[in-house]
Predict the 3D structure of the following.
Amino acid sequence: MTTSKSPAPGTLAVWAGEESYLMQGATQVPVVHSVAFGYPDVDAWLAVAQGRTPGHIYSRNTNPTVHAFEEKVRQLEGAAAATSFASGMAAISNTLFTLLAPGDRVVSVKDTYGGTNKLFLEFLPRMHVECALCDTGDHEAIEAALKPGCQVLYLETPTNPTLKVIDIARLAAAAHAVGAIVVVDNTFATPLNQSPLALGADLVLHSATKFLGGHADALGGVICGAPELVARIYHYREITGAALDPMAAYLLLRGMKTLHLRIRQQNASAMQIAEFLQAHPVVTQVFYPGLPSHQHHEIARKQMRGFGGVLSFTLRGGFEAVRAVLPRLRYAHLAANLGAVETVVGPPATTSHVELNADERAAMGIPESLIRYSVGIEETADLLADLTQALDEIE
Ligand SMILES: Cc1ncc(COP(=O)(O)O)c(C=O)c1O
């Protein structure tokens, strides 16, 4: 950007990262499908390969369209560096496999996204990495688990699907006191609602598949932080190969131009819907950090600028009620996704925690009667009317 005053996030969402790749007057970043980039002579080629001149060599490493996407997220997260991946899980696994080695210890919480949880339960222990998974709301337990020494504190907040909120600043301070690197999955909050790096995290990552892209038409992941850390993770990714495809990068870039408008609408709608559900007789519990009744509302108020577009709730009547209500919703996809322009709903057994069995979900405190409701950008009144007619059927 050429202006001296730092632009607001909404302006960054539109403009950041785009300018360097606009060609021949084009107003949009091109999709550069080229696998490799050619040079007139070996010296020019070497200068790029050795990092003395900016440029691209091979698209598993870097690519112009992909770089524009990384740059937009980097600026929105207020980070010095960013690199991207083929999916959110690629971002998470590449980060953990870069930072952890046999004999190391990672501290995290029980409520991480199901795929992340599998890394802690299955893949990292296989590499002889000890994974200490604490109760998500128990900050004292997490601090105690950090004390024996660990290399990484991995947090996700708000969590998927019960929307627990973790105090990033408090735990980042505790982790840094024992020399651990703090990683935060900011997928649910987005950079519009929460800035983990400003709260003390070292790395912030996203499943860009969700709110960043916002249109449920491209998979992607991204991580931002200090250049030395991001360079190590980039190196792991360039060798193991989970690169973001240029077409997906383009779709994510285009989606991000409306990020601030979507998040504004989704924050406001989710709040109204949470209040409506809380007062509904067939709803037994509502999980939304914006509700004053939410167990972590005060932490959310302290560290979030908005409470996000995802909420969840349980129904009287258990899983049978979930089975009855979901098909009655007219304005909701029954699908394993969230963060899209359309409302998307589902139970954890088929969405966030499909990788786990019922016992593992119960151990994580996830009720089988839970519905995760990811609010789209439809008019709030239509979503409320839709929920009313669907829930009234089971009264
Ligand atoms: C919080 C969170 N992190 C990471 C992921 C994984 O992202 P992806 O599906 O892009 O691999 C998800 C997917 O639902 C998620 O909800």
Q: What stands out?
A: The pocket of pyridoxal-5'-phosphate is lined by residues 87-89, 113, 115, 156, 160, 185, 187-188, 207, 209, 219, 221, 352 (CB under 6 Å). The chain has a mean pLDDT of 95. The chain is about 40% helix and 15% strand.
